[in-house]
Amino acid sequence: MHRSDSPFVADWFVVSFRWLVLLGATISLSLAGQLLMPGNLLLVLLTLWNISLTWLAGLNRRLDRHREISLAMDFLVTAIFMAVQGGILGPAAWVLLLPILTGAIYFDLRGGLITAGLVVLAEIAEVALRGVPGWLGLGIAALLTLAFGGFFGYISQQLIAALRILRQKEQEAREKAIRGENDRLRAVYNMTSSLTASLNYKRVLDSALDLSFSALSFGEADENGQQTVDARLACAVLLFKDDELTIGSARRFTSADLRHTFPAKAGLLNQVIEEGEPIVSEGIQQDPELSRVVSLLPSQSIYCFPMRSGVSVYGVMLFGHPQPGYFTPERTDILAILGRQAVIAIQNARLYQDLADEKERMAEAQEEARKKLARDLHDGPTQSVAAMAMRVSLARRMMEKDQKAASDELERIEDLARRTTKEIRHMLFTLRPLVLESQGLAAALESMAEKMKETYDQKVTVQVDDTLANQLEMGKSGVIFYIAEEAVNNARKHAQATEIRVRLAYLPKESEIAMLEIADNGVGFDVEAVNKSYDKRGSLGMVNLRERAELVAGLLQIDSTPGKGTRIRVFIPLTEEASDKMHQGRNKS
């Protein structure tokens, strides 16, 4: 049994002609009053045989040696039927056409002639066996049979040749379409590869538009075979900056158009950003925002693609063409692929830029930490050591004159040495709190509070949710510790507070967000005034707090009023979903 993906056309011709012959034989026998004769059971057999062949043709299947078996069956049934019904003189003599048609369709001109020759031999044998005179009629019948065989064979040969040529053309068209689709996919792949290869933000935008031009012009060439670019196409990439869309890169835009900004609060831009799906429009003449872009006014077909990933919206890609219906599904599919790749490329470029900025911030933080350590050493232990050296020299001279006074001075020197040792140990603790690594965040904060009391006589109370502290990974715990230590140290130096409170707990009704709070009862300050003049200050305490909060994707909030103390809160997301939710809420506010 053989099976094909396409129909066997020759089989359908054979079964169709066989049905016609069966119908004609039935009508002829009915008119002659011989339909119910026992010999006509052969017609029933032929009918069942044709039903089975029709079923096989419908399934695109063939028997082994299908053509030979079909021809042999038609010839055998026809020979028996003619012998039973009176041969060429019977009422259904034209049934002899059945094997001739089958042979002609399956084996072209040669098959038609050979089958006709075999039918002629059968006719001669039938006449000779019956002993019926009429050799002239037999000769005429033989000539007609051979003529029918040649005619049907020739027609079949021409028809099959035409079908083969048609099928070959269809096959070539399919192969050409497949090659074209493969070339298009290969071109799109090469385009997207070159798009994601760059980490330069501006270069990504320019590449996205250039590749869009190339993709829309793919397959279009001039008389020299060179790919052409449609000069009527205008496009741009619009990116969000300070809650407005600005033109990051454009093609076929005027200088005045490049300076436009768009709030994206109405019209096509607002719709595509709100829905998050590409939109094809007929024009922007009535658009409240885009109608200001002169370069797009002639466009009768507009395609707008939102550049978004998750909840983050970077902007839109905008294309315009004066030909109505220019952005067909095929073109929009290509632009959508490039648009999604452009979003990935922009994300990569931003991540790379963020990484570079983070590297720079870390270098600045390390430099600030070194400066802070130098200042602390200079203001604390260095001065103390210098004072001890002076007092030791003084005590040595006093021992010659007044041993009691010298003894008192040595006690003061000893106290100063102890305080200096505590300050140095506190500095070492803040540089690398080993207790954080060995016992966890809660123990580290408690140890920090104890050293503040021991070294500076500063009261610090600590309240930590142990479940939350155990949930935090080491890196996040370290950042939280340094935020708390920086805030407490700032309060000790500047707030004149008698008490500082440190609290780490889950945000109320939010099990996926932690809150670190540092509050004091000190003198307080005007937050807005300090922020305005912060670039003129020598201290970077608030900058350090903000940058360290960003390291854990947190939000820093500082509340303070002169005379009423200060409260610093850092909201820290514990999951990716909480981070998206928290920052999305901040962007909306």
Structure description:
This protein is an alpha+beta fold. The protein folds into three domains: 2-171, no CATH class; 198-221 and 229-356, GAF domain (Beta-Lactamase, 2-Layer Sandwich), CATH 3.30.450; 448-589, Heat Shock Protein 90 (2-Layer Sandwich). It has 17 helices and 13 strands. It has helices spanning 9-31, 41-58, 66-85, 97-130, 135-196, 201-216, 255-258, 267-275, 329-401, 403-431, 434-439, 441-456, 466-471, 474-495, 527-532, 541-551, 576-588, and strands spanning 2-3, 61-62, 234-241, 244-251, 261-262, 279-281, 301-309, 312-321, 460-464, 500-507, 510-520, 555-560, 566-573. A hairpin with a 5-residue loop joins strand 12 (555-560) and strand 13 (566-573). The longest helix has 73 residues, at 329-401. It is elongated. The model is unreliable at 219-227 (pLDDT under 50).
Strand order of the largest sheet: 5-4-3-8-7-6
Question: CA-to-CA gap between the ends?
Answer: 72 Å
Radius of gyration based on Cα positions: 48 Å
Shape: elongated
Query: How many beta-strand runs?
Result: 13
Which structural class matches the secondary elements? alpha+beta
Task: Characterize the biggest β-sheet.
Answer: 6 strands, antiparallel
| Proportion of residues in β-strands | 5-15%
Provide the low-confidence segments as ranges: 219-227
Q: Quickly count the helices.
A: 17
Give the total of domains. Answer: 3
Could you report the average pLDDT, rounded to the nearest whole number? Answer: 79
Proportion in helices: 55-70%
Q: Provide the succession of SSEs.
A: EHHEHHHHEEHEHEEEHHHHEHHEEHHEEH
